[in-house]
Design a protein that fits this description.
Layout (H helix, E strand, L loop, with lengths): L1 H27 L9 H12 L7 E2 L9 H11 L11 H12 L10 H10 L6 H17 L2 H11 L1 E3 L2 E2 L1 H9 L8 H9 L14 H16 L8 H16 L1
Parallel strand pairs: 1-3
Antiparallel strand pairs: 2-3
């Protein structure tokens, strides 16, 4: 009995420590650039174990140094409800589950917020435990970070090629230019390879990636070729104002 009480006490202390550390970390990274992610370190270990040269290209830049076209391209490609949801797109999740149950190609329903939480704080994998941690960190960053900050961290942290992480490194690797100079076609090309950046090439693109580029550019045109982070906030304020005036 005494032994069980000690285990419970230690478990409680560990839980409190985890929650405290995780919240502090998310608050700190609200402003501080993320120098390295778990995936970057894992890839380095994999390269070393395979006898390959360690390759890690990662250059952090602020969001205003990343082409607005790339910001829009990843929203069109990965998460078109990004500005509307609070971390989870339940419609996309249900669609992914339905496709997977039908035996179609396995696809995820992860939002940009979920991908950011996973890349910055967790390890790759599909276990329920990791998914639970992912949901927890997704809620934290949605509560503490702005949509702009989530996008900034996302575009500076995700894998965009073999040993290539973030928009700046990817822009230089694929197109020999800085991220702020990317045009619509180049932005769509980078966004197109995100589902599997170790397999696909942004330049030159395969037939499949070329088709994805066309689709992404069409979506960008439907969005008016711009991403307005304040759009839905403004709409919510207008609705709130109308509700108050009716009262």
């Amino acid at each position: 009995m005494v032994f069980l009480l000690k285990i419970v006490k230690w478990g409680f202390k560990l839980a409190i420590g985890f929650f405290g550390l995780s919240i502090v970390s998310v608050i700190i990274f609200r402003w501080v650039p993320i120098p390295v992610t778990p995936l970057m370190l894992i890839r380095c270990v994999e390269q070393k174990s395979d006898g390959k040269e360690i390759r890690l290209k990662h250059d952090w830049v602020s969001l205003d140094k990343i082409s607005p076209k790339l910001q829009l391209a990843v929203v069109c490609s990965e998460d078109q409800n990004y500005l509307k949801h609070y971390g989870f797109d339940w419609g996309a999740i249900q669609k992914a589950l339905d496709n997977n149950e039908k035996g179609k190609k396995i696809r995820g329903g992860s939002t940009i917020s979920q991908q950011t939480a996973k890349n910055v704080f967790l390890w790759p994998g599909r276990s329920y435990i990791r998914k639970a941690f992912e949901a927890y960190f997704t809620l934290l960053i949605e509560l503490i970070w702005s949509k702009e900050r989530i996008m900034e961290v996302y575009l500076n942290s995700i894998e965009m090629g073999n040993g290539v992480y973030g928009a700046e490194a990817a822009s230089n690797f694929w197109f020999k230019k800085s991220a702020e100079k990317l045009n619509k076609d180049e932005s769509a090309a980078i966004a197109a390879i995100l589902p599997n950046p170790l397999h696909y090439s942004a330049n030159p693109p395969s037939t499949y990636i070329a088709k994805r580029k066309v689709w992404i550019k069409q979506q960008m045109s439907f969005w008016g070729n711009q991403l307005d982070y304040d759009k839905y906030n403004d709409e919510d304020e207008e609705k709130s104002g109308k509700t108050k005036s009716k009262k």
